[in-house]
Predict the structure.
Amino acid sequence: MPRERGNGRPIRKIFPGITRTIRNGTAPVSSGGAMTVGPNTEAVVRRILASRKLEVQTYRLCMGVLGFTKRYSRAALGESCRRTLAAGRATYTFVKNSIVSVAEEYGKDGYNAVPADDRNNGAFVMDKSRTDMSALLEQSRKLAESAGKEVL
């Protein structure tokens, strides 16, 4: 079993679930994540996997690339990976830096807004008059006067 350098703790303690991946000989690309985004993303992930002597060293990079689908759309990630392959720089950093501009080009369709909509669903929206600075200062002055404190 692979061990972490130094303290001798097994890698499975550091990366839960990775020993199953090592045992099966499959990489994160085989889990279907990259394949569902598109062929360009799959190609980038495969190149990242091949970029290191030990494939295990690239798993976090691959999961990071696939993790961009949480914030950005699959189309934006696919286009970013296409540009990455065209530039011949299949690295996590290149994808990370290019996906922002690709998402801006796509506009609203470049971002994955579904989690934000779910998070904001049912939120209490205050009236603008409640956050008006003069109204807040007046309310503060009234509270200070009612408490018998000196108002400046």
Summary: The two ends are 71 Å apart (CA to CA). The mean pLDDT is 77. The chain is about 55% helix and 0% strand. Residues 11-114 form one domain.
